[in-house]
């Protein structure tokens, strides 16, 4: 197998690198997905193709199919195109049937009570609360279901660790018109996968619109009830907006809730349920006895799968936090295909609470496979290094933590993923998504001892000793997370890779990032230390207390490939590489494409936008720089003089990328493809103006205020011609707040200062991101 180039005397096998490199960076375009994927030419798209692409890039070998993006060159650009193909090839076949014409008159009770809003041009600016990443998510995605809207995170019950940096000043945004709903309404396909063979079983699904995204003046349905026992049911003329869907199965008493955002003029919306083989109901908040969660967990581990543990709505009322306080550790989820579902009848997460009572026990432990914990709040562990939520052991694979709130550890991590869990970044990885992790005494999420985890769209904040960490030969893929305000201990970094375990000294810790926002942490935005490997892509590392990115030696050298990243307003260096460690910021040995940005770091105090303390070559080509100048061609001499520590002696910055290029930006993808007002959307592409996007002296405290449409400054994003507040900018990514809740497909455009206006890109769709 290929090895990544390492400093002299520091070589180690990269057993995890194929998956590491191929899960990173950006989602491949649909065109690329149609052109390749079978990189080893064996007729099958599978894990082996990840190895082949890696070999083609780093050994310059492999078959022509390894040119996944079909640009005629086998390079690092092929790596981000490969993993979606492998994931799609391994994904289970959806149970939903093709789109069916909806019935003419579904059962419904329409209402129309929304107040008309003044058109956007005349609406005064309104103050928007301080932006924070969503944590609750929207509806729970099931096989075949599209990406779901995100909800505002539920505040923690106990005050979080104080922030090391003042909270950004909120900026004024304009309010969009709430227009009339399109007359045809939204179509919905309801599917129930029956895992019982009871011939008489009846599965009823009902729904109600909970939040309007448009004025229902055309008599569109706002409720429905269907019998889904016999197969998929198609509905039409539903009012767009946020809906709660409820499944009731008469034989087992299963009562389950999902929320989704229904759109019109797009592919059919879907909601999918599974009628479980075994259903256990928690009917008391007592810690033990009949109907307790403890009893349900014990029974679930040996019950016929799939197993569902649900909560009685009369004992655990919707919207009311109801606490189960533990007297001893709960039984671990040691079985397989068990779902612990805390979503209430309003579709809300966090109201079914497990409290460890400050005891030296985990709040919840998982040691089995393919289990799901959704919508729970787990909190308050005590001494003896007990994590609030623990996933551990070689049998713990493919578990999902979804829309949970994990908070308040006395001595340990919020979520610990340890001891050989997972095994790769694909089907076997443990996944944490759309969750809030806060107030841990140590890390928010820590992955150790050869564990594998995918962490997506989480809000990891106010943890004392760091946000997300891969350590002791742990493996992390982190995408689209908001990591902020880590403060209070000695390793207060946003994200980090921290070296091997003593028992596996040649197995590096691995960190892959894509689209994360790491800001206001007391340490580094990202720290890569010791024998660790990192591939860092499309991240914004802003206003951290030390460096934006640091790659450094300690008991061994670290290596990092960096592209599409912005380091701005950090109190130390923007990026720093030292000792025998290596970082490729563009044009170097690890095939980085560059597209990074270095600006507004603490130069007045003697820091640098890029510090090369290695005494060896560091490549940072095709980047935007604070001292480039405002012309279409950069001043390389000014960059060497003011932006890099060695003034160009060992650091290569040419060619550099002018932020005012006179060229229009290009939009290539968005994540997610739809959402509610206030949700974060990441816009990917090229040509975004990072330098003007972080104004001098702003400390990155008001990014939205320095990226405006009128007057034009920095970057301007408009959705349906309504400006969207911008949270972060890199040369390849904008992070924006949706100005309204999606109703139907509409146009997104981006305009840049000193550039131009992009072609329209369609958002508010049910397409997979």
- Model regions low in confidence, pLDDT < 50 over at least 5 residues: 1-35, 54-61, 75-81, 83-175
What oligomeric arrangement do these chains adopt? single chain
What structural class do the secondary elements suggest? mainly beta
Integer average pLDDT: 84
Strand order of the largest sheet: 10-11-13-16-19-22-25-28-31-34-37-40
Distance between the termini: 32 Å
| Proportion of helical residues | under 10%
Overall shape: it is: globular
Rg, Cα atoms, Å: 25 Å
Biggest sheet layout: 12 strands, parallel
Count the DSSP helices: 7
**What portion of the residues fall into strands of 2 or more residues?**
25-35%
Total beta strands: 55
Outline the secondary-structure elements.
Elements: H1 17-23, H2 30-35, H3 47-58, H4 79-90, E1 126-127, E2 172-173, E3 186-194, E4 203-212, E5 223-227, E6 233-238, E7 241-249, E8 254-262, E9 269-275, E10 278-282, H5 293-300, E11 307-311, E12 322-325, E13 338-341, E14 352-355, E15 364-366, E16 372-374, E17 376-381, E18 389-392, E19 400-402, E20 405-409, E21 415-418, E22 430-433, E23 436-438, E24 445-447, E25 452-456, E26 459-461, E27 468-470, E28 475-479, E29 482-484, E30 495-497, E31 509-514, E32 517-519, E33 526-529, E34 532-537, E35 540-542, E36 549-552, E37 559-563, E38 566-568, E39 575-578, E40 582-584, E41 597-599, E42 610-613, E43 618-619, E44 624-625, H6 636-642, E45 651-652, E46 666-671, E47 680-686, H7 690-693, E48 708-709, E49 712-713, E50 715-719, E51 722-724, E52 726-730, E53 733-737, E54 746-752, E55 761-763
Parallel strand pairs: 3-9, 10-11, 11-13, 12-14, 13-16, 14-17, 15-18, 16-19, 17-20, 18-21, 19-22, 20-23, 21-24, 22-25, 23-26, 24-27, 25-28, 26-29, 27-30, 28-31, 29-32, 30-33, 31-34, 32-35, 33-36, 34-37, 35-38, 36-39, 37-40, 38-41, 39-42, 41-44, 43-45
Antiparallel strand pairs: 1-2, 3-6, 4-5, 4-7, 7-8, 46-47, 47-53, 48-49, 50-51, 50-54, 52-53, 54-55
């Amino acid at each position: 197998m290929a090895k990544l180039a390492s400093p002299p005397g520091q070589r180690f096998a990269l057993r995890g690198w194929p998956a590491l490199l191929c899960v990173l960076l950006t989602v491949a375009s649909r065109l690329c997905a149609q052109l390749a994927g079978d990189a080893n030419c064996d007729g099958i798209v599978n894990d082996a193709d990840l190895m082949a692409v890696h070999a083609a890039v780093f050994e310059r070998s492999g078959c022509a199919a390894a040119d996944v993006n079909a640009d005629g060159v086998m390079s690092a650009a092929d790596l981000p195109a490969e993993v979606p193909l492998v994931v799609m090839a391994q994904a289970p076949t959806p149970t939903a049937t093709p789109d069916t014409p909806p019935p003419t008159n579904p059962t419904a009770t329409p209402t129309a009570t929304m107040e008309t809003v003044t058109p956007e041009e005349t609406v005064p600016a309104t103050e928007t609360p301080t932006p924070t990443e969503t944590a609750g998510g929207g509806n729970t995605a099931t096989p075949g279901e599209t990406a779901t809207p995100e909800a505002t995170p539920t505040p923690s019950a106990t005050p979080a660790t104080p922030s090391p940096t003042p909270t950004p000043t909120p900026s004024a945004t304009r309010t969009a018109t709430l227009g009339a709903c399109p007359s045809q309404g939204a179509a919905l396909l309801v599917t129930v996968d029956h895992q019982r063979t009871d011939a008489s079983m009846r599965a009823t699904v009902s729904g109600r619109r909970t939040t309007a995204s448009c004025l229902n003046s055309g008599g569109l349905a706002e409720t429905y009830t269907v019998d889904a026992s016999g197969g998929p049911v198609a509905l039409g003329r539903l009012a767009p907006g946020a809906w709660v869907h409820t499944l009731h199965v008469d034989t087992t008493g299963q009562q389950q809730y999902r929320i989704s955002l229904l759109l019109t003029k797009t592919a059919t919306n879907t909601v999918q349920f599974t009628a479980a083989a075994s259903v256990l109901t928690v009917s008391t908040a007592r810690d033990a006895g009949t109907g307790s969660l403890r009893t349900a967990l014990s029974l679930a581990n040996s019950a016929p799968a799939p197993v569902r543990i649900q909560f009685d709505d009369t004992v655990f009322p919707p919207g009311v936090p109801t606490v189960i306080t533990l007297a001893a550790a709960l039984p671990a989820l040691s079985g397989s295909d068990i779902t612990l579902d805390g979503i209430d009848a309003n579709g809300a997460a966090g109201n079914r609470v497990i409290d460890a009572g400050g005891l030296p026990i985990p709040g919840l432990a998982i040691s089995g496979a393919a289990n799901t914990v959704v919508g729970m709040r787990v909190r308050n562990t005590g001494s003896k290094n007990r994590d609030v939520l623990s996933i551990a052991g070689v049998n713990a694979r493919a578990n999902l933590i979804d829309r949970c709130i994990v908070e308040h550890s006395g001595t340990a991590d919020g979520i610990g993923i340890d001891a050989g869990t997972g095994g790769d970044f694909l089907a076997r990885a443990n996944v944490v998504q759309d969750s809030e992790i806060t107030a841990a005494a140590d890390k928010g999420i820590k992955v150790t001892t050869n564990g594998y985890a995918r962490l997506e769209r989480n809000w990891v904040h106010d943890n004392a000793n760091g946000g997300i960490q891969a350590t002791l030969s742990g493996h992390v893929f982190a995408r689209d997370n908001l990591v902020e305000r880590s403060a209070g201990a000695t390793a207060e970094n946003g994200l980090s890779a921290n070296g091997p375990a003593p028992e596996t000294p040649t197995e590096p810790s691995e960190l892959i990032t894509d689209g994360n926002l790491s800001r206001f942490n007391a340490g580094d935005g990202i720290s890569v230390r010791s024998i660790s490997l990192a591939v860092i892509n499309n991240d914004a590392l802003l206003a951290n207390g030390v460096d934006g990115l640091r790659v450094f030696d300690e008991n061994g050298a670290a290596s990092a490939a960096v592209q599409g990243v912005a380091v701005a307003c950090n109190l130390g260096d923007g990026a720093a590489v030292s000792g025998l460690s290596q970082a490729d910021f563009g044009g170097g040995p690890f095939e980085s494409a560059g597209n990074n940005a270095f600006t507004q770091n603490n130069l007045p105090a003697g820091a640098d936008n890029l510090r090369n303390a290695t005494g060896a070559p560091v490549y940072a080509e095709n980047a935007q720089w604070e001292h480039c100048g405002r012309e279409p061609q950069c001043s390389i001499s000014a960059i060497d003089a003011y932006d890099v520590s060695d003034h160009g002696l060992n650091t290569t910055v040419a060619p550099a990328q002018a932020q005012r290029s006179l060229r229009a930006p290009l939009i290539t993808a968005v994540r997610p493809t739809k959402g509610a007002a206030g949700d974060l959307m990441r816009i990917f592409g090229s040509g975004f103006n990072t330098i003007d996007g972080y104004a001098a002296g702003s400390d990155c405290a008001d990014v939205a205020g320095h990226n405006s449409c009128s007057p034009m400054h920095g970057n301007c994003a408009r959705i349906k011609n309504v400006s969207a507040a911008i949270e972060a900018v890199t040369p390849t990514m904008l992070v924006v707040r949706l100005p309204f809740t999606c109703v139907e497909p509409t146009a997104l455009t981006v305009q840049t200062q000193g550039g131009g206006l992009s072609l329209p890109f369609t958002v508010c769709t049910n397409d997979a991101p």
